[in-house]
Amino acid sequence: MSVEYSQNPLVYRGSREFDPEIPEILPHEKVYSIQVGYKLFRLSGASLSSDAPSYFTQFFNKEENTEEILFIDRNPNIFEKIYNHLQGYRISVDTAIEFVHIWSDSYYFGLKRLQEQLSNEDIFAIIGGESFKISKNLLVQSGNYPNYFSINYDSMLTDNLRLIEQKNIIRPPPQQPATVNNRSAKLFGDLIQILKGNTLVIKNDEHRKLLIKECKYYRFLALEQKIIKYKIHNCPYTDAQEIIIDLFDLSSKGIFKQTFPRQESPVLYARPYIKDIKRSLIFQINNSENFNPELKLLINRTEGICILRLVGDYRSKFLQIFRNMSKDFMDEPQMSSEMLILSGLKSSKAVINGLTMKQDWWFSILDTPRSDTLGSASPVENLGEPKSKMRKLDLNSNNDLLSVDNLEKYFKGQEENTSKPEIIEITIIKGLWRVLTRGQHARLHLVSLEGCTNSSTFLRDRIDFL
């Protein structure tokens, strides 16, 4: 028995125009008997010839078999649908298990017209014990294909059908639809709704995170980018657009560097796998949930230097996304558990220890006595201009950017005749940064910060009544 299989079963194909003419492979008026399991089916030669050549026409075309009853040891309930198909009805498939059984038998019996109809059917899957019927159009959208289901169907429909053809086995091998028992049926149903355009099913940020995990599992890459939380900021004065997105939601595929050797330029970002435009990037660090007290903004009061210290997953993710932007972002994982990145503060907003800082707040910290630091009880509004007019490194000018190789001396005091400088440490709760590049150099620039200088302040702001 000869069978054929689809090399790309999930590619959507519109139905060809139906040809009502039936070739006379068997005498149209003659009636043939087929016993399937416990049930006898009687079909005309016209019905059997309507989807031919097939296993049935090959059997009854032999002279010695014209009056025989063809016995097939298969499920008569499944054959009932095939019987209706041969009689000219367009059959409907109700469940994932039924689809796999009919599909398997259509290849086993060599019914090419039924195979084509099934290849244009919806996709069936069992997720978390619940059967789903999914429009094929949803699963072949750009950016979401190939996915878990296309890979599963390729394996199920290609490997098993090759086995039928090559081994000439007496019955098809047992098969099952795409089945995922360890995932949530409710979350998968929500993904299908979002694929249809219904984003109102996203309830809150926690629900959004769960949906993103499901997208990663099923490899719905474009859908993931649509679910990720982001903001588009429009400047009415310049018509420029900025996108604000969490560091852990960034993809290196969406990063674009502008090359201007004499001018600092922001790194651009376009969400990958979807048709998105390039916008200036502002990335967010959110340390409020899985709080890491070592994630800090370090301000050297005497040198006028500000450094962002990244540790743990924050460091790893930053390197994954921005390593190729500049040699200043190069960091060998085996050398250190932290990463130090030069950061500008001009025009940034800050809330520290629950207090809103005044404009150019960071200037007030430089060269001031220790009693006037951010951790004191002094009203923040009374902080004045720096008491010293000593020239400091302007992180926002076009001066040469500081090399990462020279940062150690500001924090470890390892340079000869240099004492360890006075450092103010602000633990980051939330922060927004731009990435600025010029030529081969790069740095960060703070946009907004929420931080604290001690654990008691952090806990005080988060302990509340039930």
UniProtKB/TrEMBL annotation:
Domain Potassium channel tetramerisation-type BTB: 34-114
Domain of life, source organism: Eukaryota
SUPFAM superfamilies in the record: POZ domain
Pfam families tied to this protein: BTB_2 (PF02214)
GO biological process: protein homooligomerization
Cross-referenced InterPro entries: SKP1/BTB/POZ_sf, T1-type_BTB
PANTHER family xrefs: BTB/POZ DOMAIN-CONTAINING PROTEIN YLR108C (PTHR31758), BTB_POZ DOMAIN-CONTAINING PROTEIN YLR108C (PTHR31758:SF2)
Name under which the protein is recorded: Potassium channel tetramerisation-type BTB domain-containing protein
